[in-house]
Amino acid sequence: DVKVTQSSRYLVKRTGEKVFLECVQDMDHENMFWYRQDPGLGLRLIYFSYDVKMKEKGDIPEGYSVSREKKERFSLILESASTNQTSMYLCASEQPPKQFFGPGTRLTVL
Amino acid sequence: AQSVTQLGSHVSVSEGALVLLRCNYSSSVPPYLFWYVQYPNQGLQLLLKYTTGATLVKGINGFEAEFKKSETSFHLTKPSAHMSDAAEYFCAVSLGNNNDMRFGAGTRLTVKP
């Protein structure tokens, strides 16, 4: 079975803090994705990566950056957290056309 | 670019009743279509997917969906709702290899006893 893990299930940070959300997959997939999930808005794509050191902006990249130094790990970075980034963050790994999701990280920014 | 519209942010049915969750998509090429379920405090799980072949797709937990190209729809159904089906359901569309998936806004299903 494919396993996608995320570093934290729940996270609370202060406004202005730098936040790292990590995602690790164990199936040697090339494609990985970061989404945020908000009530009434569903899932929105933040960034995705097709290979190590490659990244592409999704629909809502503002305020975020990503890092893919190793194939199995895809990190989402909030350079300076703001309250409007309070959300559920979901990582996915892809064997096209199927995506496998991690359990999610619920981030609260105070 | 592809997109998905889920009709109805909330659907409520009685236990044992038919479940129908609606999804319409737009795509410039034949799409891959998915339904995901998210139970409270859990991650997304794949219910079923359509890629090619038979247009009626059967998934887990008794759910099925039919791809109707003429209607650009991929509605999710289950003949008899169970209390454990209460969750949020997401329809998604992808154009295939190396292409990002687009999700609908989700439909919250409530099952009444």
Overall average pLDDT of chain B: 90
SS-based structural class of chain B? Answer: mainly beta
Distance between the termini of chain B: 41 Å
Principal-axis shape of chain A equals globular
What would your notes on this structure say?
- The complex is a heterodimer of chains A (110) and B (113).
- With 110 residues, chain A is an all-beta fold.
- Chain A has strands at residues 4-6, 10-13, 19-25, 31-38, 42-49, 56-57, 65-70, 73-78, 87-95, 98-101, 105-109.
- In chain A, strands 2, 4, 5, 6, 9, 10 and 11 form a seven-stranded mixed beta sheet that branches. In chain A, strands 1-3-8-7 form a four-stranded antiparallel beta sheet, with no helix packed on it.
- Chain B has 113 residues and is mainly β.
- Chain B starts with a strand and ends with a strand.
Give the SSE map.
The complex is a heterodimer of chains A (110) and B (113).
Chain A: E1 4-6, E2 10-13, E3 19-25, E4 31-38, E5 42-49, E6 56-57, E7 65-70, E8 73-78, E9 87-95, E10 98-101, E11 105-109
Parallel strand pairs in A: 2-11
Antiparallel strand pairs in A: 1-3, 3-8, 4-5, 4-9, 5-6, 7-8, 9-10, 9-11
Chain B: E1 3-7, E2 10-14, E3 19-26, E4 32-38, E5 44-50, E6 56-58, E7 64-68, E8 73-78, E9 87-94, E10 102-103, E11 107-112
Parallel strand pairs in B: 2-11
Antiparallel strand pairs in B: 1-3, 3-8, 4-5, 4-9, 6-7, 7-8, 9-10, 9-11
